[in-house]
From TrEMBL:
UniProt keyword Repeat, yes or no: yes
Protein name: BTB/POZ domain-containing protein KCTD9
Source organism, top-level taxon: Eukaryota
Function: Substrate-specific adapter of a BCR (BTB-CUL3-RBX1) E3 ubiquitin-protein ligase complex, which mediates the ubiquitination of target proteins, leading to their degradation by the proteasome.
Record-linked InterPro entries: 5peptide_repeat, BTB/POZ_dom, Doublecortin_dom_sf, KHA_dom, Pentapeptide-BTB/POZ_domain, SKP1/BTB/POZ_sf, T1-type_BTB
Keywords from the UniProt entry: Phosphoprotein, Repeat, Ubl conjugation pathway
Record-linked Pfam families: BTB_2, KHA, Pentapeptide
Coiled coil regions in record: none
Listed GO biological process terms: intracellular signal transduction; protein homooligomerization
Stored SUPFAM superfamilies: Doublecortin (DC), Pentapeptide repeat-like, POZ domain
Domain BTB residue range list: 91-161
Segments forming domain KHA: 3-82
Signal peptide span: none
Amino acid sequence: MRRVTLFVNGSARNGKVVAVYGTLSDLLSVASNKLGIKATSVYNGKGGLIDDIALIRDDDVLFVCEGEPFIDPQTDGRAQEELTGSHTDWLTLNVGGRYFTTTRSTLVNKEPDSMLAHMFKDKDAWGNKQDPRGAFLIDRSPEYFEPILNYLRHGQLIVNDGINLLGRYYLSELAAVIHSCPCSPCSLSQNSQPAEDHSPISRKEFVRFLLATPTKSELRCQGLNFSGADLSRLDLRYINFKMANLSRCNLAHANLCCANLERADLSGSVLDCANLQGVKMLCSNAEGASLKGCNFEDPSGLKANLEGEFLLGVDMEGSQMTGINLRVATLKNAKLKNCNLRGATLAGTDLENCDLSGCDLQEANLRGSNVKGAIFEEMLTPLHMSQSVR
């Protein structure tokens, strides 16, 4: 098997040794992946265009481009980068009126799935707007952008006093980096450890974050600490609260339509009259929570999913839960009086000592559920029970 060394056109740095196999298209695909560019052509060291993989010999040095002419790597480096417009060229960013200079590779390589990587991986892929000085315009706060750019440069999160880490929405994977310093203002230096501040996020901080975020952006609040916060009456649609600490929160009248609350801690929280259409609450803990008068019913047909949720002693009186998925959930001692459970999936659910009086259970699936000591409406005859409860 032949091996070659690949460089970006015009550069003799950061080469990648790869195996040559298959067709020329296969080699271009490997080059695109290794060099972070959209490879379309390959040149040999003398500038000859290679159009057949059979022309490549073992230990060849090849230069890959995105369609531009061959550039001799012996020429001035900065001129090369300006001519190629390649993955290593220098960029100036205008972030909220403040200028930052960096390289395309800094924005793309470390976090390839981030918003910045998608914006600058392919030239003009996002139709990036430029100001009169040629700087790319980014409508974000420069105070939040600076620590993120430094993280991309050095791999270390360095945050000044007064910077709330909720501003990390530029990068999808930065949550893992700041997981050890929860969302509270903290000061880091290159020789210090994150401050041990596990204080929960306040309503004021969170509202400020919501107002600064475009309405169409996906908000990732995964694993964050909101314990005891007042989030009542807020628009929290589509937010990812997976594994978040929402214990003892006030979420009354909040709009949580299609929110992701999977494995979240909702114990002791108040969600009375909340909109929970299409909510995802798989395996979350809502022990002792109050969900009176909640709406889980989505007219469009999207069903709320509470499969495996821990709802011990929960109060859900008067909630609309048509078609809800509560399979294998724990509802022991729960108050479900006057709930609409028509067509609900309650298979394998623990309903021991539940108050189900006044509930609409027509077409509900109670197969394999534990109804020991449960209180049903008198109209539910033994015949109905035998059809749905094992």
